[in-house]
Design goal:
By secondary structure, this protein is an alpha/beta fold. 41% of the residues lie in helices and 23% in strands. The chain is built from 15 helices and 17 strands. The protein has helices at 10-14, 21-31, 46-58, 76-84, 92-105, 157-167, 169-176, 194-206, 230-243, 256-267, 281-287, 305-312, 316-322, 327-341, 389-409, and strands spanning 3-8, 36-42, 61-65, 88-90, 118-120, 124-126, 135-138, 149-153, 183-189, 212-218, 221-228, 248-250, 271-275, 296-301, 345-351, 366-373, 379-384. It has a six-stranded mixed β-sheet with strand order 2-1-3-8-7-6, with helices on both faces. Strand 10 (212-218) and strand 11 form a beta hairpin. The longest helix has 21 residues, at 389-409. Residues 4-174 form the MoaB/Mog domain. This is CinA-like protein. Pfam families: CinA, MoCF_biosynth. InterPro entries: CinA, CinA-like_C, CinA_C, Competence-induced_CinA, MoaB/Mog-like_dom_sf, MoaB/Mog_dom.
Length: 411
């Protein structure tokens, strides 16, 4: 199925508003086994009509975002009706919804809002519980030319995303005649290079009939996408899990930080972090997860040696003898965070992010990570990420979270 996305809005081309709709819709479509063939962004006004006219001649499905509001430059409905040779009519249901929206807010409704009730004749109104502008679905039978189905969706994400989930996937599945025996699984791995991952898995995965495989490499992570019939996907999932059981973060697309929070919750453990070179990146990722407050107690950022000494009790003798970036200090940091916070497990990070500050013995990119668990002897591991500061912090925080994950999963 040839699917195109048309994003409308001058602000998207000026750069004042980031255009994220194409990426988001593309990710949603891939879950159905569908692909975006083309994405176009145009400013408000006349270019919208021209872009719609061009797209409906090529595409089986056109998804348009934006331009459904009450202002004079919101012309998506008008442009679509003109391009498809359909009259606009006032839809009673859409009008009632718009009026009711303002009534519930106890706000005056300007007459300009009435244009939001104008719908191409024969189209279906898509409810918008999060805004005034209803969406519109034009089945392929309505077009005077090529049989292209058109979805008109609002621009604001808080309106677009719920409307998409409620109104679009089931219609696309019907149009594409997709079988219910079709699914996508996204598996995330860490601690393995992309080339090694490919070399070990390409041949056996390609031997599974009906399976589509996709890879995406990120810093310290490899994502594997499996698409196909249920039996093929499950066969591949089992194969990959058995090949890299200890490196599998999740097989449902969950991020590493969510996996850690879920594991902590399952064990009824609390976590504390203490960071130097990452400046709170580990704690930030943990607190990005809903429910983190139930399992995360303290996030110490002890950048200076004095902070390591005064806040979490790292011995000044250790700091002077071994230096802040050392196995001994990483262990002491983790243990100090554990005791100070009262948590069940603590992770520490201390390293040299660069670009300066390195030495022959401790080059830029060196990092020590420590783990302390109640009742056990703390330990530390060394890693090396000779990257720019941003990449270094991301990879070091990934390694720290993975150490916590491994500890939580160990017997």
């Amino acid at each position: 199925m040839h699917i195109e996305i048309l994003n409308t809005g001058t602000e998207l081309l000026l750069g004042t508003t980031q255009n994220t709709h194409g990426a988001w819709i593309g990710q949603e479509l891939i879950k159905l086994g569908l692909r975006v063939q083309r994405q176009t962004t145009v400013p408000d006004g006349e270019p919208v009509r021209e872009a719609i006219k061009e797209s409906i001649e090529r595409a089986d499905v056109l998804i348009v975002t934006g331009g459904l509001g009450p202002t004079s430059d919101d012309l998506t409905r008008e442009a679509t009706a003109e391009a498809m040779g359909i009259d606009l009519i006032e839809d009673e249901h859409a009008l009632r919804v718009v009026v009711e929206f303002f009534k519930n807010l106890d706000k005056y409704m300007a007459d300009s809002n009435l244009k939001q009730a104008m719908i191409p004749c024969g189209a279906e109104v898509l409810p918008n519980p999060n805004g005034t502008a209803p969406g519109v679905y034009l089945p392929p039978r309505l077009g005077k030319g090529s049989p292209c189905a058109v979805f008109l969706l609002p621009g604001p994400p808080r309106e677009l995303y719920p409307m998409y989930h409620a109104e679009v996937p089931h219609r696309l599945k019907a149009l594409a005649e997709l079988s219910d025996d079709h699914e996508m699984v996204e598996m995330k791995f860490t601690g393995i290079g992309e080339s090694d991952f490919h070399e070990a898995l390409d041949s056996p995965l390609n031997a599974i009939a009906g399976l589509e495989v996709g890879y995406c490499a990120r810093p310290s992570e490899v994502d594997l996408r499996l698409i196909g019939p249920h039996a093929a996907v499950e066969s591949a999932r089992t194969l990959v899990t058995n090949t890299y059981p200890d490196k599998l973060i999740s097989d449902d697309g969950s991020l590493l930080e969510k996996v850690v929070v879920d594991l902590l919750a399952a064990k009824k453990w609390n976590l504390a972090t203490v960071e130097s070179c990452t400046g709170g990146a580990v704690a930030s990722r943990i607190t990005d997860v809903a429910g983190a407050s139930e399992v995360f107690t303290h996030g110490f950022v002890t950048y200076a040696n004095e902070a390591k000494r005064d806040v979490i009790g790292v011995s000044e003798d250790l700091l002077n003898t071994h230096g802040a970036v050392s196995e001994q200090v990483a262990r002491a940091m983790a243990q100090g965070a554990l005791e100070t916070s009262g948590a069940d497990i603590a992770v520490s990070v201390t390293g040299i992010a660069g670009p300066g500050g390195g030495s022959e013995e401790k080059p830029v990119g060196s990092v020590w990570l420590g783990i302390a668990v109640k009742g056990e002897t703390p330990y530390a591991l060394k890693s090396f990420y000779p990257k720019d500061r941003a990449a270094f912090k991301l990879m070091a925080s990934q390694r720290a979270l993975d150490l916590v994950r491994r500890e939580l999963r160990s017997e």
